[in-house]
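Researcher: Quick test of sequence recovery. Tokens follow.
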């Protein structure tokens, strides 16, 4: 039986660590208690890590774009994963963010200063087990980004395996394997400059000897482990994983080698051990098999998908996860079940509350959102340029604030906080702007005029109709949605849309 099968692991000193899975994640009630304790203990205070992260004998949630956000990472830990990787985060995006202590959620947030987007959210539960994967092509930029987050994560991994065009054109991902000098410079700079362990994740080359040679060279930089995906940059999931390539790397290196790419053969927890044995690796990293059903990490067998989805949704609610990100993750769990009646209903959902309602969690979602609002949580509906300017200490020259017409000050504008939710309007004839235009024509009021201002990546629009002005106080991430929000305020103000309806469908919280 391998170390990964019996839950034990071996540290670099040869000591055996029993039960590497660690404690299970708490229940929803337990998480509320965790938040309270975090506040009492001074959440956000930088404390030294309990132990330096070991990569030996581990089952690991692989880095996956849009999947490896906080709810999925926490659920993987609850089911038995030892280490969880974040999705790949580009260095310049991290550098464009500021660190916020979120006392309402009990989290540390890295917030994009241009639009309030949560670039990375983490919490105390995962601090000793979360590895942030970074995309970079520059050693000094990588170091600066790494210094920003090193106290809030257990390790940092450099992506040297992503074959996507965006990464390759930017000199990141698998492009670094073609520029070994740069790749080693990045790793060595981070190893020497950061307090947390540094690793990298690569893909195999077409030649087995060249693959071993490159991995040996990367290991010379002092990294703590290396992840190896058993497909080349041009191969895709339908191609066989080159397990013998990974085995050759594991045999040649003295540092832990993490096997990746075996999801086609992994259908239960026991298959993880088989993959580990076949590749001769210290640890196994799982991507697609975990994306489909993250309870793959359970030693006692996978749970029914509905149960997994409900657990995931509760975590998404409790940590105020972005609705579109939650939908993406659930969609990847459902796969062919999207064609069922419930699956089709899910595809029409847009907000987190709408998604939760399909699994009988709508009331729970709304209750928690109202609690968050009462506690002062800054969610999507509360994000505005003024708040971002006040919070961010990194903005050197914030964008100049654009103003509406001086002859009509903001106090004279009919204002409501209304969110435009696209899924509520199935056809163009249903759109708020279309309805405003039709109503204004029927009343012979002239053409509605929209004026939209932008600050950073946020937009706000004012609708002028027959000498009156209307706006939503909620800033949107594109001009079209800002205009639709202003149109909704107009429709509500003139009695064409019922306020109770807007509250019921989630447009007003």
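Model:
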């Amino acid at each position: 039986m391998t170390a990964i099968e019996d839950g034990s692991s071996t540290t670099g000193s040869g000591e055996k660590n029993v039960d590497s899975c660690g404690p299970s994640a708490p229940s929803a009630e337990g998480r509320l208690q965790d938040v309270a304790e975090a506040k009492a203990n001074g959440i956000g205070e930088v404390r030294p890590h309990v132990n330096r992260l070991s990569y030996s004998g581990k089952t690991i949630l692989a880095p996956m774009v849009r999947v490896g956000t906080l709810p999925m990472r926490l659920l993987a830990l609850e089911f038995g994963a030892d280490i969880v990787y974040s999705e790949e985060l580009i260095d310049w995006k991290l550098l464009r963010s500021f660190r916020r202590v979120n006392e309402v959620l009990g989290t540390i947030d890295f917030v994009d200063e241009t639009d309030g987007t949560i670039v990375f959210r983490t919490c105390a539960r995962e601090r000793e087990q979360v590895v942030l994967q970074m995309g970079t092509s520059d050693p000094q930029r990588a170091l600066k980004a790494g210094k920003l987050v090193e106290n809030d994560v257990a390790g940092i991994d450099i992506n040297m395996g992503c074959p996507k065009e965006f990464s390759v054109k930017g000199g990141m991902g698998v492009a670094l394997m073609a520029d070994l000098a740069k790749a080693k410079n990045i790793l060595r700079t981070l190893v020497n400059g950061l307090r947390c362990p540094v690793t990298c994740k690569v893909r195999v080359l077409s030649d087995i000897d060249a693959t071993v040679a490159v991995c040996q060279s990367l290991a010379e930089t002092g990294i703590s482990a290396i992840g190896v995906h058993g497909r080349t940059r041009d191969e895709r999931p339908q191609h066989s994983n080159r397990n013998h390539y990974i085995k050759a790397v594991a045999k040649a290196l003295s540092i832990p080698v993490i096997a990746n790419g075996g999801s086609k053969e992994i259908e239960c927890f026991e298959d993880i051990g088989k993959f580990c044995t076949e590749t001769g690796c210290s640890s196994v990293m799982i991507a697609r098999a975990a994306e489909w059903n993250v309870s793959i990490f359970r030693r006692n067998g996978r749970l029914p998908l509905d149960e997994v989805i409900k657990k995931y949704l509760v975590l998404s609610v409790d940590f105020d996860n972005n609705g579109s990100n939650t939908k993406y993750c659930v969609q990847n769990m459902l796969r062919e079940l999207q064609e069922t009646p419930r699956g089709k209903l899910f595809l029409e959902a847009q907000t987190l509350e709408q998604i939760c309602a399909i699994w009988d969690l709508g009331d729970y979602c709304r209750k928690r959102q109202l609690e968050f609002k009462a506690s002062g949580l800054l969610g999507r509906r509360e994000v505005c340029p003024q708040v971002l300017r006040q919070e961010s200490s990194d903005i050197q020259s914030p964008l100049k604030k654009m103003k509406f017409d001086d002859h009509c000050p903001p106090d004279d504008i009919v204002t409501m906080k209304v969110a435009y939710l696209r899924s509520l309007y199935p056809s163009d004839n249903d759109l708020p702007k279309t309805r405003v235009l039709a109503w204004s024509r029927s009343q012979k009021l002239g053409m509605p005029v929209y004026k939209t201002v932008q600050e950073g990546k946020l937009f706000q629009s004012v609708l002028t109709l027959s000498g009156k002005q209307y706006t939503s106080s909620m800033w949107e991430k594109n001009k079209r949605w800002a205009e639709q929000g202003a149109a909704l305020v107009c429709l509500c103000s003139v009695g064409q849309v019922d306020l109770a309806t807007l509250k019921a469908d989630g447009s007003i919280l």
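The longest strand covers residues 458-465.
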